[in-house]
Amino acid sequence: MTTVRLPLFPLNSVLFPGLVLPLNVFEERYRAMMRELLKTPEDEPRRFAVVAIRDGHEVAPSAPGMPDPTALPERGPLAGFGADPVKAFHKVGCVADAATIRERTDGSFEVLATGTSRVRLLSVDASGPFLTAELETLPEEPGDEAAPLAEGVLRSFRQYQKRLAGARERSLASGAELPDEPGVVSYLVAAAMMLDTPSKQRLLQAPDTASRLRDELKLLRSETAIIRNLPSLPASELTRGPMSLN
Predict the structure, then answer these.
(1) Which of 125, 130, 54, 128 lies closest to 92 in space, CA to CA?
(2) Given CA atoms 168, 13, 239, 188 in this order, what sign does their dihedral have?
(3) pTM of this prediction?
(4) d(C-alpha 108, C-alpha 30), whole Å
(5) Contact 160, 223 (CB under 8 A)
(6) Second label for 169, Cα 20 to 30 Å away, from 135, 160, 187, 229?
């Protein structure tokens, strides 16, 4: 088992390998993390791990009434996650490589990172100014019939895009060619579909590419049918997620 220790950034969303993650970092615990990452030379990876929050808050109350009107301030790396952070987070996450870390004049950071590989959360250390985690690297196994499954997923995904565009009464700006490598297809489609966090998390932690593609095929057919019956269904951009508040 190969393990690695990295800074830990919990979010209310799921990061997939190959997908871009924009972050607006303003909480002190994550500002401290970015200052530490900036100590790494630019020609080396500035890596941290992203895990989806199972039970807790991405942004901790920082002042009375912020962000919850009834909340009291919380401090420290564990703020908002309870006494046992391992229980607060999903067990499978993704390593992110920060290509851009730009500090603003107010001390906050603008960060642009890319997901690289899956990891399993083993333990969390809250003794420093920000969370760190012991992580097990997870290989991406292809599984059986990944290539034909990817072809089927791409066909269904194009239908899903058309239905979603029709529901929004506009055409999608998706002229770029979609990839055909099964692993890349599985992660791109997982990120692009309009799914809740638990559903995306299940796709991230699928045992292999083929299993993920099979699940996506079922979800695409189900979601396309829902959109067909609810043409006014709202949606956000397919291939871009919202910037995290943190």
Answers:
(1) 54
(2) negative
(3) 0.81
(4) 9
(5) yes
(6) 187
